[in-house]
């Protein structure tokens, strides 16, 4: 059976977090929906999976809240559930940048639809920046994009302040997986004097869904935060697997490394893997 994977987020004031957490957790579990939804006072962010009827029901339940009635979501499809359980968690931020004064509900950059994105990033006056972390960029990115080489999104503001200048970079275009990181990134940049800031509406996932491969300026695959690991154009499952030792994506080339052991380690974590964890993973592998 084909299952639906729905990714969603919205920045909106949600002070009644505990009540909403309990009702949403129960509603999703009763319908067999799996995934993770984050709730914070600044909004909601999550990815869930289930059959068509169940996903539609959960989305309708969310939109029955007047604050979320215009909640947008993106869909992809899979033959098996990419999540093992349902978690509704309370957080300080739905995407962590670590700055309390960054508020996308107050200001964000200019949204660019996937169909118009190629024109924006082909402009020689535009500085194109990938807001994702270094390992994500290594799997795939847009041609000509700058890689900030960050290990977490918290490092992005520092990268901007140290490497970019609003008097020199007059036009800036940002992108991320589903669009949510760019909400905060563009808000931050606008508050620091950058005047013309664009971001890809719906993120890379929407671009890969709507822009034909023959017209695409995307190279590689896109990392996703579920058991599919990566996706390609048309949101088809990609060629990467997840390392059991560190959770990093592994390519076919990395699997040929002597540091790769299925279910145990990969070149990324081999040297740092403790003997205790190695033994635990080996035992887990034997019990499968």
Report on this model:
The protein is α/β, with parallel strands linked by helices and 288 residues long. The chain has nine helices and 15 strands. The protein has three domains: 3-90, 2-Layer Sandwich (Alpha-Beta Plaits); 110-220, Rhodanese-like domain (Oxidized Rhodanese, domain 1); 249-287, no CATH class. A five-stranded mixed beta sheet has the order 4-1-3-2-5, sandwiched between helices. A four-stranded parallel beta sheet has the order 6-10-9-7. Strands 8-11 form a two-stranded antiparallel ribbon. A hairpin with a 2-residue loop joins strand 2 and strand 3. The two termini are 24 Å apart. The model has no long low-confidence stretch (mean pLDDT 94).
Topology of helices and strands:
Blueprint: E1 3-11, H1 17-30, E2 34-40, E3 43-50, H2 52-63, E4 73-78, E5 86-90, E6 110-112, H3 114-121, E7 126-130, H4 134-139, E8 140-142, H5 156-163, E9 171-175, H6 180-191, E10 196-200, H7 203-210, E11 218-220, E12 222-223, E13 230-231, E14 241-242, E15 249-250, H8 252-255, H9 275-286
